[in-house]
Amino acid sequence: MSVLTTFDPFFRDFDRLTRRGQGPRFMPADAFRRGDEFVVNFDLPGVDPASVEVTVDKNVLSVEAERRWSPEEGDRVVLSERPQGRYERKLYLSDNLNTDAIEASYEHGVLSLRIPVSEAAKPRKVQVIAGNGNEAIASN
Q1: Under 8 Å between Cβ of 88 and 52
Q2: Which domains, from first to last, does the chain contain?
Q3: Confidence of residue 129 (pLDDT cuts 50, 70, 90)
């Protein structure tokens, strides 16, 4: 059972972006389950935390952020390779995650999202009743 599917517009728009000379704006991520929550970390170095937007629409999680840099008057730019502009990444979440309880934090250029696993998706023990229904069987 997959709890996450990714959609990255980078691949769809790669040719269009490179033809215009802008280069890709890639938002790398790691995702893993830790106990009863799902954690997703996005690398967003140099991004103003105020520009980060996280939204959930049904089971689609969208992360948008912006990185801008403008030389000051009198600066002589010798090298400018760091991508600027708007970043976007979409993840398709399974119904097994509680999207109403997502927590987000941003520290040291990393956006971390914690998404709890829904109660219905957590493993649980089922009591087994023996014979006439009056006696429960102990289980480990």
Answers
A1: no
A2: 4-70+82-137 (2.60.40.790)
A3: confident
Mean predicted confidence (pLDDT) in 20-39:
78
Distance, in Å, from the CA atom of 84 to the CA atom of 39, rounded to the nearest integer, reads 26
Q: Which helix (H) or strand (E) holds 30?
A: strand 29-34
User: What is the per-residue pLDDT across 50-109, written as a single tens digit (0 to 9) for each?
Assistant: 999 999 998 899 999 999 888 999 999 999 888 888 999 999 998 889 999 999 999 999
Please report which helix (H) or strand (E) contains residue 12, including its range: helix 9-19
Q: What is the dihedral of CA 73, 75, 81, 87, to 10 degrees?
A: -20
Q: Return phi, psi of residue 103, to 5°.
A: -115, 135
Separation of alpha carbons 67 and 25, rounded Å: 10
pTM of this structure: 0.69
Structure tokens at 46: 């140099």
Is residue 106 within 8 A of residue 49, CB to CB? The reply is: yes
User: Strand (E) positions, 48-131?
Assistant: 53-57, 60-67, 85-93, 103-107, 110-116, 128-130
Q: Which residue, 73, 72, 53, is CA-closest to 63? A: 53
